[in-house]
């Protein structure tokens, strides 16, 4: 996969978000939300796996712990045309822990080797692994040393993996919830850099706390790729310069301005409305698009209070409403200072799934 990617995030990186992000960057690698193997094998797999062709390169992230089930799910993902399959070995949620997958898999490197080996035998596309630099179990026992991290990576390599996405924090199970696990364990970027030095033949991608392209460019001096997580939700317009700055190509015309992104999203919104998808499933991803601009808070509030609560939109009336809404953002406004931006709280509306 490429130099820059957006992290898989539950209840966020759905197909609507991925289409939205493609209006900002053509080259950034996109990920699905984590999809449990049971959802693919026994559920409505098309609901979980469908995507727009423009989303490539796009990676399917799987959750599970059974090698046979994961191999079968990976093969189905390849049939759908995904560019790679990623195994989640980093999610610290209690629900995932009780299912013995996510970060808890790091306690058993040999089992992970068997899983990725089975997945590699089932597909011809790359199988990658996303993991933490270590783990501390509910009992307090953990695998937190650098030597244990190397053992985990080596086991995955023995199973045929050559691309690793490394969240530069340990996961603390039981005592911290997922949000706390994204902020309380300290970031240890040097550990990921060291991993690249010790495994120069591997593609090592760094993840955790990276919020700007400036930071991404600094990390790329030490590792092969950078994955951005929460900042992709909070400040999505940062990707408007990604193709030029990270890949040395032209930025998409649709990324010329925040308003251009919203207008380019409307034809897609119309198609989703024709399928019966509520408008907020699509437009919620644009809520933070104007972060740092005067009028951004008003834009978010009016989305929530005027657009999302109404259910009788037509393609004509939604276009009119969006154009009127965009008028609250001045075209030539000077961006707010950092302290003014921070004073404006982020807004992510709920999704009724």
UniProtKB/TrEMBL annotation:
Q: Name one GO molecular function term.
A: tRNA-dihydrouridine20a synthase activity
- Its Enzyme Commission number? 1.3.1.91
Q: Does the keyword field hold Metal-binding?
A: no
The identity of this protein, by name, is: tRNA-dihydrouridine(20/20a) synthase
Q: Which HAMAP family match?
A: DusA_subfam (MF_02041)
Q: What is the purpose of this protein?
A: Catalyzes the synthesis of 5,6-dihydrouridine (D), a modified base found in the D-loop of most tRNAs, via the reduction of the C5-C6 double bond in target uridines. Specifically modifies U20 and U20a in tRNAs.
List, alphabetically, the InterPro entries matched: Aldolase_TIM, DUS-like_FMN-bd, DUS_fam, DusA, tRNA_hU_synthase_CS
Family as reported in the entry's similarity comment: Belongs to the dus family.
